[in-house]
Write a structure and sequence with these properties.
heterotrimer; A alpha/beta (250); B alpha/beta (253); C alpha/beta (481); B: 253 residues; alpha/beta; Rossmann fold; 2 domains; 4-stranded parallel sheet; 14 helices; 8 strands; 50% helix; disordered N terminus; C: 481 residues; 6-stranded parallel sheet; 4-stranded mixed sheet; 22 helices
C-alpha cells in the first residue's frame, strides 16, 4: 500500500527541524561513532569477541547456569549427548507430556529428539513449512496452541542476563516457544556469549553482511512469563510459558 | 577578639527569614559555634530574603530583585554561611538560573555561588572540623533536608559532626530521606498533601524514641514540630547548631 | 483525547487521601518497587550505575538534538525491512491512520499490548466506534479496560485495585465465580485472552525504543502478551511517541540495563522483542504487514523549549512515581490525565494545556527525589519551576494563570522583603495579631486568614519577641572574647 496516511514525511521532519531551530536538513556533527563503524570495524570486534569466548569456557557455562537459574530457568548441563537425551526423556515423562511441537534446527541432528518422543509415545509435530509432512499454517498454529511443550534450540545464550535468544526464520516459528505452557531450550556451548552487547554486535554484523537485513524478529527469553499486576503479587505463566527448561550440552 | 591569632576565618552570616523571625535562638547558636570554631562573624544588617519563596512560585522578576540585593549586601564577604540547605541551594544553584540571560549579573552570581556554604558543610568541608568538642546528653534522630541532600549534595557532614558529639545517642530515622512535606508555599497551597507527608515523618520520628529531632533546616523542623506538637509529643526540635553550641551545654541546658 | 480531569486535582487528591485502601496499595507498590530498584542498584554498584546513567543521558541528548535525522534514517530502514512508516502530527491523525488501516484490511479483532501513547489518543474508543473489537492484553490494562478506568501508574496500571475488586470485576464482566486466589484470576484472563490472541487480525503495540540504524522497534514485557500481539496476527501496528528513537542497536544494551531495574528491580524482563518489519518470506509465522506510527501530538513543542526538552528523554520506567512522596499520597488518578507522577506533572500540562493543568507543576515540594531516581538524570524539579514561571509570568496569556491579585501580592511581598524597615513593621503587626492567640509561643487552631489552614492540623510557631537581627545589634555583634 503506498497511499500516504497522516502527514507527509518531509512536512513532519520539517516541523521537527523547526522545533530544533534549523531550516535545512543536516547530519549530526560530529557523526555518531556507532553509525560510522564499518563492516571491517565490526569484524575486528567480532574477532576480539571470539577470542574472549575461548577463555574460561567452563566457568562461563557455570556462570550461565547461575544467571539462568536466578531468572527462574530450570537449568541442567550435561557432559555428553547420552546423558542429556536421557534427562530430556525423564523430564518429558515427569511433565506428563502427550503433545509436543518442535522447531527444525541443527541441534536436533545431534539430539535424536524424534526418536525420543516416539519412544515415549508422545505425539509431536515439527513446525517447518518446508519440512517433510508439513502442516498447513492453520494446522501448525493449532498444534502450537494445544501442545504441552515446545522444544527449540537456541541462537544465542547470554550469561549476563540468563537469556536464550531466538531468531525466528524458516524452521523456527515465533510461537513454538510461546504457545505451549512449557518451553525446553537446548543450548550448545558455541552459542553462549557474555553480554547483551555481544548479541547486538553479532546482529549488526549479520545486518551488514546481508545487505541491511537481520531477519524479521528477535526474542530474548529470560525465564517464564510473569506478572505482578494484581496487588503486586507474582504470578508465573500468564500469557507465555509457565515453565522454562534449559539443557546445556557441555 | 584576639587579633594575634593567624587562623581567623572571616565569615558573613545569612540568617534566613525563618530564623530571623521565628527561631532567633538558632541564629545565636550558629554565631556561637562559628566563633567557637575560630571565625570572625559579620552580619550585613540590611539582609532580608534569598528570594526562594517567590522563585518557587514562579515570580522570577521579584525574586531577581531580592537576589540582586543579596549579591549587593554580601559583596564584601569571603564566605557566606547559611544555616539552611534550602536557602544555600537557592543562592548556589538557582541564582545561576535566575541570571542565566543576564551576563553581567551571571558573572557576579557565579562568583557569589563559590562563597556560599551551608552551615554544617562549612564546618566539615572548609574549616575541616569534625569534632567540635560538643556534649549533649540525650537520644536524638536526624532528618536530612531535601535541598541539603540533593541540591547541595551534602549527606555526610551533619552525621560526622553529630557522631562526634559526646554523650549523644544518635538513632537512625526510618525513611529518613523522604520529604517532610514542607516545600515552602507547597505546605499552604496543598496543605492536605503536606500534612499527610508530614504525619508520616512525625510518626517515624516518634517511633525512634528520641527526645530530640535534629536537622539543618528550620523550615522542615517547623513543619514537623507543628505535627509533633499537635500530637502532644514531647520530642523537641533542634537545629544542628544548637546541639554543637558549647555555650548551651556548658551552661547545663 | 481522553477526558482531561487535571483541573480536578485538588478534589481528586483530597478524596485519594481519605481512601485507606488506595493508601495501602500505594504504600505497597511504592516501597516494593522502589525497594527492589535500590537493591538492583546495590548489586550493580553505585559508581557503575551512575556511569550508565550519564552515558544514557548523553545518547538521549544526542538523539533528540538530531531527531529529524534519526527519524529520517528510521523511516528509511523500516521501509527497507518491508514495513511502512506513518507520521501523525496529532491524535486525530494518529487515530485516523490506525482506523484506516484496520478498515481497509477488514480487521474485526485487535489485541493490544501496552502503549501509553495509545491512551493519549484514546485509540481504543476510536477503533471500537468503527466496529473493531479491541482487547487490552497486559493483565493490568485488561483489568482497567474491564473496569472502564484509566491506568493509575506507568508500569502497574491496576495498582489501585485490591484483589477483591478484581475478583468482583471478573465476576461481573465475564460471569465467572468470585475467585479468591490471584493465580486463578490471572488464569481467567489468560484463558479469555488466549482465544483473542490467536484469532486477532491485528496486533497493536507501543515501543520502548526505536532503533534508527536497523529500523527496529523494541518492546520489553514480562507476560508474553507483547510477543503474542506482534507475532500471531496478520498485521502489526506499532504506535509510539516520536521521541523514542535511539541511534544504534549497540546502544540498546545500556538501556536494557537501566529500564527494568529502575521500574521493578528486575535485571531484565522475561521478554525483549525486537521487530524488524513484517515476516520474511521464508519465516514460519509473523505478521505480513508492519506499520509504524510515529506521533508528535505536542512533543515538538517540548522539543523546541530548551528548558523542557529533557522531558522527552523519559524511558517511562516509573521510578519517579515510585519514589515521589506526593504520588504515593495522591495516586495516579489525581493527576487527571494519561501521565501521572513527577514526569506526568510536566508532560500532561504540556500536552493538554498548561492553564488547564495549572495545579500539577505546583503540587510538588520540589524535594528532588525523582531527579535522584531517574535513570536518565532528568531534572524534573527544574522543569516544574520553569512551568511555574510560565504560569506566573508568561507574556503569553494562554499560559499565564495568575490574576491581578496574585501579581500584586507577589509585588507587595517582594517590596517588603527589599526594605528591612518595612519588614520589621510587618513583623510587628503579625506578632501583635498572633500574640493574643499564642500559647507559650505556639499557635493552636485559629480562624485567622492563611494561618487558619496551617493550624487546622498543625501547631504554628508565633513570631519571636525579638528578631535575630535585633539580638545581633544588641548582644551578638561583639564577640565575647
Amino acid at each position: 500500500m503506498t497511499e500516504i496516511l497522516g502527514t507527509p514525511k518531509d512536512d513532519f521532519l520539517a516541523s521537527v527541524r523547526g522545533a530544533l531551530g534549523r531550516s535545512t536538513p543536516s547530519n549530526p556533527s560530529p557523526p555518531y561513532f556507532r553509525l560510522e563503524e564499518s563492516l571491517t570495524d565490526l569484524e575486528k570486534m567480532e574477532q576480539d569477541l571470539k577470542e574472549r569466548l575461548l577463555i574460561d569456557h567452563d566457568q562461563r557455562i557455570n556462570a550461565l547456569v547461575e544467571s539462568a537459574r536466578a531468572t527462574a530457568w530450570n537449568v541442567n548441563r550435561f557432559p555428553n549427548l547420552e546423558e542429556a537425551t536421557s534427562y530430556i526423556a525423564d523430564l518429558l515423562t515427569t511433565l506428563g507430556v502427550q503433545h509436543a511441537v518442535r522447531s527444525n534446527q541443527s541441534i536436533f541432528h545431534q539430539i535424536p529428539i524424534d526418536e525420543l518422543l516416539n519412544n515415549l509415545g508422545i505425539e509431536s509435530a515439527v513446525i517447518d513449512q518446508n519440512g517433510a509432512g508439513q502442516l498447513s499454517q492453520t494446522q501448525a498454529r493449532q498444534k502450537m496452541i494445544d501442545a504441552d511443550i515446545g522444544i527449540t534450540g537456541s541462537d544465542y545464550c547470554v550469561v549476563e542476563t540468563g537469556s536464550v535468544v531466538i531468531l525466528p526464520r524458516a524452521g523456527l516459528s515465533r510461537l513454538v516457544s510461546l504457545g505451549p505452557p512449557v518451553h525446553l531450550a537446548i543450548v550448545s556451548p558455541q552459542e553462549i556469549v557474555d553480554t547483551l552487547d555481544d548479541v547486538f554486535l553479532l546482529r549488526r554484523l549479520d545486518y551488514l553482511r546481508n545487505g541491511g537485513d537481520m531477519g524479521s524478529y528477535l526474542n530474548f527469553i529470560s525465564g517464564p512469563s510473569r506478572t505482578a499486576d494484581i496487588e503486586q503479587t507474582l504470578v508465573v505463566g500468564v500469557h507465555g510459558p509457565k515453565e522454562v527448561h534449559m539443557v546445556i550440552l557441555g | 577578639m584576639n587579633h594575634s591569632q593567624t587562623n581567623i576565618t572571616k565569615v558573613s552570616l545569612f540568617c534566613t527569614c525563618i530564623i530571623d523571625q521565628l527561631y532567633p535562638e538558632v541564629g545565636k547558636s550558629v554565631v556561637n559555634v562559628l566563633r567557637q570554631s575560630g571565625c570572625e562573624v559579620d552580619f550585613p544588617i540590611n539582609q532580608t530574603c534569598c528570594g526562594q519563596p517567590l522563585y518557587n512560585s514562579g515570580f522570577t522578576r521579584e525574586s531577581k530583585k531580592l537576589a540582586l540585593k543579596v549579591l549587593n549586601d554580601f559583596e564584601h564577604s569571603n564566605y557566606v554561611i547559611v544555616p539552611s540547605g534550602s536557602c544555600a541551594a537557592m543562592m548556589r544553584n538557582f541564582y545561576l538560573d535566575l541570571f542565566a540571560k543576564d551576563q553581567r549579573n551571571l558573572t557576579r552570581a557565579t562568583a557569589f555561588a563559590g562563597k556560599v556554604y551551608e552551615f554544617s558543610e562549612f564546618l566539615v568541608r572548609v574549616l575541616k572540623i569534625e569534632d567540635i568538642g560538643a556534649k549533649y546528653a540525650g537520644k536524638a534522630t536526624y532528618h536530612p533536608s531535601c535541598h541539603l541532600l540533593r541540591e547541595i549534595g551534602e549527606r555526610e557532614a551533619p552525621k560526622i559532626l553529630l557522631d562526634n558529639v559526646d554523650g549523644l545517642d544518635l538513632v537512625s530515622l526510618h525513611q529518613a530521606e523522604y520529604c517532610c512535606g514542607f516545600g515552602g508555599s507547597f505546605s499552604i497551597k496543598y496543605p492536605h498533601i503536606s500534612e499527610a507527608m508530614g504525619t508520616d515523618k512525625a510518626e517515624n520520628v516518634m517511633a525512634t524514641g528520641a527526645d530530640s529531632l535534629i536537622s539543618c533546616d528550620m523550615g522542615c523542623l517547623m513543619q514537623i514540630d507543628g505535627l509533633l506538637s499537635r500530637a502532644e509529643s514531647t520530642v523537641r526540635i533542634r537545629h544542628i547548631s544548637q546541639i554543637l553550641d558549647r555555650e548551651i551545654h556548658s551552661a547545663g541546658s | 483525547m481522553p477526558e482531561v480531569k487535571t483541573q480536578a486535582f485538588r478534589n481528586s487528591s483530597e478524596t485519594a487521601l481519605k481512601n485507606t485502601q488506595l493508601q495501602q496499595a500505594l504504600k505497597r507498590a511504592g516501597t516494593g518497587f522502589d525497594g527492589a530498584r535500590r537493591q538492583a542498584i546495590d548489586s550493580v554498584g553505585a559508581v557503575n550505575w551512575d556511569l550508565w546513567r550519564d552515558e544514557a543521558r548523553k545518547i538521549k541528548i544526542h538523539a533528540l538534538e538530531n531527531l529529524d535525522y534519526y527519524l529520517d534514517l528510521l523511516e528509511q530502514k523500516v521501509t527497507e525491512n518491508g514495513g511502512e512508516v506513518h507520521f501523525a502530527k496529532d491524535s486525530e491523525e494518529a487515530n485516523l491512520i490506525v482506523s484506516q488501516i484496520a478498515k481497509s484490511r477488514n480487521v474485526q479483532i485487535a489485541t493490544k499490548s501496552k502503549s501509553m501513547v495509545s491512551e493519549e489518543l484514546d485509540l481504543n474508543k476510536v477503533l471500537e466506534k468503527s466496529g473493531v473489537e479491541v482487547y487490552e492484553t497486559d493483565l493490568g490494562e485488561y483489568i482497567i479496560q474491564l473496569a472502564e478506568e484509566t491506568p493509575s501508574h506507568l508500569v502497574a496500571p491496576a495498582l489501585h485495585k485490591t484483589k477483591e475488586e478484581v475478583a468482583l470485576l471478573l465476576h461481573e464482566k465475564l460471569q465467572v465465580p468470585i475467585l479468591d486466589d490471584i493465580e486463578d484470576m490471572a488464569r481467567v484472563a489468560r484463558d479469555v485472552l488466549r482465544d483473542k490472541f490467536f484469532n486477532a487480525d491485528m496486533g497493536i503495540s507501543g515501543a520502548n525504543f526505536l532503533i534508527a540504524e536497523t529500523g527496529s522497534l523494541v518492546i520489553i514485557t514480562n507476560e508474553g502478551n507483547g510477543r503474542l500481539c506482534t507475532s500471531a496476527p496478520r498485521i502489526h501496528i506499532g504506535i509510539t511517541g516520536m521521541e523514542k528513537v535511539i541511534p544504534s542497536l549497540q546502544d540498546l544494551g545500556l538501556f536494557l540495563r537501566l529500564l527494568p531495574r529502575s521500574a521493578t528491580g528486575q535485571h531484565l524482563t522475561s521478554y525483549v522483542s525486537i521487530v524488524n518489519g513484517p515476516k520474511r518470506e521464508t519465516d514460519e509465522d509473523g505478521p505480513s504487514e508492519f506499520h509504524l506510527v510515529l506521533v508528535d501530538n505536542g512533543r515538538s513543542r517540548m522539543l523546541a523549549d530548551p528548558e523542557l526538552r529533557e522531558a522527552l528523554y523519559c524511558i517511562r520506567c516509573g521510578a519517579c512515581l515510585n519514589i515521589c512522596p506526593v504520588y504515593q499520597k495522591v495516586g495516579g488518578h489525581s493527576y487527571g490525565w494519561v501521565y501521572p507522577g513527577p514526569i506526568g506533572a510536566i508532560v500532561s500540562p504540556e500536552l493538554v494545556g498548561l492553564k488547564r493543568a495549572s495545579d500539577l507543576p505546583f503540587a510538588s515540594s520540589l524535594c528532588g527525589a525523582c531527579k535522584d531516581a531517574c535513570p536518565i538524570k532528568i531534572n524534573i524539579p527544574r522543569m516544574l519551576l520553569h512551568q511555574r514561571h510560565k504560569l506566573s509570568e508568561s507574556t503569553d496569556v494562554s499560559e499565564r494563570n495568575i490574576g491581578l491579585t496574585g501579581r500584586l501580592a507577589a509585588k507587595f511581598t517582594g517590596h517588603i522583603l527589599q526594605h528591612p524597615k518595612q519588614l520589621s513593621i510587618t513583623r510587628s503587626i503579625i506578632r501583635l495579631i498572633q500574640l493574643p492567640l499564642s500559647n507559650k509561643g505556639t499557635l493552636k487552631k485559629t480562624s485567622l486568614p492563611i494561618l487558619s489552614r496551617w493550624t487546622k492540623n498543625r501547631d504554628m510557631k508565633v513570631i519571636a519577641p525579638k528578631s535575630f537581627r535585633s539580638i545581633w545589634q544588641t548582644e551578638l555583634y561583639k564577640d565575647k572574647d
